[in-house]
Amino acid sequence: MSTEDMKKRAAEAALEYIEDNAVLGVGTGSTVSYFIDALARIKHRLDGVVSSSEATTRQLKACKIPVLDLNAAGPLPLYVDGADEVNRQLQLIKGGGGALTREKIIAAASELFVCIADETKQVDVLGAFPLPVEVIPMARSHVGRELLKRGGQPVLRENVVTDNGNLIIDVYNLQILEPAKLEAELNNIAGIVTVGLFALRPADVLLLGTEQGVQEIKGKDC
Ligand code: 5RP
User: Fold this and answer.
1) How far apart are the first and last CA of the chain?
2) DSSP summary character for residue 66
3) Which residue from 70, 73, 74, 171 could staple onto 152, CB 3.0 to 4.6 Å apart?
4) Residue 103 annotated to the active site
5) 79: Cβ–Cβ under 8 A, 6 or more apart, which residues?
6) What mean pLDDT, rounded, does the chain reach?
7) What would the pLDDT profile of 9-31 be if each residue is shown by its tens digit?
């Protein structure tokens, strides 16, 4: 079975979490794109969706799924999104698609965060995938130096401007043994808008697409 098929399986399984007349948050990426395709089949049951990126908004609109503003929608019962890496505590690295800031805002505003991923994303220790960090343009060099001091190898993502008008630095060579501590520390560097570590607010449920089927893994508070 291909990775794409495993992503599709996980995405389809997330439909089980959607209640009638729900408003939910939707993430960004190729796994989420399969989820939006599945969502289109049940759109008559939805009141609307809060989108985490311009790319997701385009796909939702093409499927004629109503897109709502988070401020108007209020707290959300459910957020569904993918990940670049997920550990056993359901802490994540996200931002491979550059949408980490809006993704983190919607995750924070949601009661339940369901992560959908194929089995290649599961790791014991986060950090083999370079950690994305969204940065205010004038702070690029300062943030790069601060990341070097912490043992990371910062690389500016070429020709990328985020939906918020900022830059992305991908940080290589981090072995993230204490994800929540590192997230809090990096959050304090002036000029960093968002760190792609989702450890202080991890996923609540992981739907992991595997060769054998979909594993449902619940976090400690679920
Ligand atoms: C985008 C993300 C994505 O969830 C992450 O990159 C996973 O993407 P994919 O489902 O394409 O592997 O964080 O900012």
Assistant:
1) 30
2) P
3) 171
4) yes
5) 24, 25, 26, 27, 106, 107, 109, 110, 112, 113, 114
6) 97
7) 999 999 999 999 999 999 999 99
Task: Scan for tokens 């060769």, then name that residue.
Answer: 211
Q: For residue 186, how far is the Cα from the chain centroid?
A: 18
82 C-beta closer than 6 A to ligand 1:
yes
> SS3 string of 133-175?
EEECHHHHHHHHHHHHHCCCEEEECCCCCCCCCCEEEEEECCC
Residue 175 has pLDDT above 90, yes or no: no
* Residue 220: per-residue pLDDT: 86
- Spatial contact of 122 and 217, defined as CB atoms under 8 Å apart: no
Q: How many CA atoms lie within 13 A of 207 on its CB side?
A: 26
Spatial separation of the C-alpha atoms in residues 22 and 78, rounded to whole Å: 9
Residue 202 Cβ inside 6 Å of ligand 1? The answer reads no
- Residue 117 CA: nearest ligand 1 atom is 10
Q: What is the residue with the minimal CA distance to atom 1 of ligand 1? A: 97
Coil vs helix vs strand at 190: coil
Token pair 């931002």 in the structure block, residue: 95
CA distance 158 to 73: 35
Cα(55)–Cα(43) distance, rounded to whole angstroms? Answer: 19
Q: Which domains does the chain have, with CATH numbers?
A: 3-124+200-218 (3.40.50.1360), 131-195 (3.30.70.260)
Query: Which backbone phi and psi does 143 adopt, to 5 degrees?
Result: -65, -40
